[in-house]
Design brief:
Structural class: mainly alpha
Strand content: under 5%
Shape: rod-shaped
Largest sheet: none
Keywords: Membrane, Transmembrane, Transmembrane helix
Protein name: Zinc-finger domain-containing protein
Organism: Thalassobacillus hwangdonensis
Radius of gyration: 24 Å
Order of helices and strands: HHHHHH
Number of helices: 6
Number of domains: 2
Length: 162
């Protein structure tokens, strides 16, 4: 009986963020909703409020909606900042490629140096901040993408310069 009471208390707390729960947590909540009419009524009323809020196109006053919106927008700003830094590195490469007579090999080393000096610290800091903003599977994807970029960005730029 104590476990059901604990699950009931937890279920009441997580109903507002039901859509953001993991699949396993959703299954636990759904099982409890089948057994508890009070939580089922709360869930139904939240679903009705959510439908009304979607039609009015604004962030509703539920406790975690603004936090979720802030986390997602922060994550996208981090991605945008990474893209801007990569663009600046590419811009410098192409400017040096067109204005100097330096061999491409030297310019290639310049891109590698810029990636290590500018992009790598940014990627580490951005991924550390993203740990608090998004789910862990996205962090793994970003880490793999950053490693691929570190090793191949200079090659890609050289292909476009030829």
């Amino acid at each position: 009986m104590m476990v059901n009471k604990d699950i009931h208390l937890l279920c009441e707390e997580v109903l507002p963020i039901y859509e953001d729960l993991s699949e396993d947590a959703k299954k636990v909540v759904e099982r409890h909703l089948e057994e508890c009419p009070v939580c089922k009524a709360s869930f139904d009323s939240l679903s009705d409020e959510e439908d009304e809020d979607r039609s009015s196109d604004h962030i509703n006053g539920r406790p975690f909606t603004k936090l979720i919106w802030l986390k997602r927008s922060g994550f996208f700003f981090i991605l945008l900042f990474k893209i801007i830094v990569l663009g600046l590195i590419a811009k410098e490469f192409f400017q040096l490629n067109t204005t100097t007579e330096a061999p491409l090999g030297l310019l290639d080393e310049g891109v590698r140096a810029n990636m290590v000096l500018f992009y790598l610290p940014l990627a580490i800091a951005a991924n550390a901040i993203s740990l608090f903003l998004v789910k862990k599977r996205y962090i793994a994807f970003l880490f793999i993408l950053d490693v691929i970029l570190l090793f191949t960005y200079d090659t890609v730029l050289l292909r476009f310069a030829e």
